[in-house]
Amino acid sequence: WPRTHHIGSSPMTRVLIEPHVGGRCYSEQQEGTECSWGQILAWEPPARFVMAWQITPQWKFEQDLSRTSEVEVRFTPCDDGTTYVELEHRHFERHGEGGADMRSKVSSEGGWAGLLELFRNRAEQAQEK
Fold first, then answer.
1. With 80 as the cut, is the pLDDT of residue 1 above it?
2. CA distance 47 to 86
3. How far apart, in whole angstroms, are the C-alpha atoms of residue 36 and residue 46?
4. Which of 16, 30, 80, 121 fits 11 for a cystine, CB–CB 3.0-4.6 Å?
5. What is residue 72's three-state secondary structure?
């Protein structure tokens, strides 16, 4: 996870996702605090997971799940031994005003595409070991 992508009040040290329905998606911050930013809605390894994106268009935590978008990540095995990864971020309208701007930002090069590229690079490095 890019160290620059967090909503905490100090530099991020790591990102954690608790692997079960209801699990938290959060970051640990340098000053020792935790900063929640999501919740697992579906956990179905090895095929997929869905999380609530609990971040407002102002890049703050959103407690109310009815005002959050969702991120679904699907993993499909390929015949050549690789895995096809699909990411869908949906329901931006739930964020209200600012949802369209958020969609634009997470769809930009520094958003999900950049994160998936980091994931691909890390997976390739692990495969070489």
1. no
2. 11
3. 24
4. 30
5. strand
Residue 65: CB atoms within 10 A of its CB come to 12
Taking the C-alpha atoms of residue 58 and residue 69, their distance in angstroms, rounded to an integer, is 14
How far apart CA 13 and CA 63 sit, in angstroms, is 23
Q: How far apart are CA 40 and CA 10, in angstroms?
A: 24
State how far the alpha carbon of 40 is from the alpha carbons of 16, 54, 113, 122, in Å. Answer: 12, 11, 21, 23
Nearest to 91 by CA among 41, 129, 43: 41
Tell me if residue 109 falls in helix, strand or coil. coil
Q: Does the global pTM surpass 0.70?
A: yes
What does the alpha-carbon distance between residue 72 and residue 101 come to, in Å, rounded to a whole number?
A: 20
> Which positions ≥6 away from 119 have C-beta within 8 Å?
85
The tens digit of pLDDT for each residue in 36-61 reads: 999 999 999 999 999 999 999 999 99
Q: Whole-angstrom Cα distance, residue 6 to residue 14?
A: 10
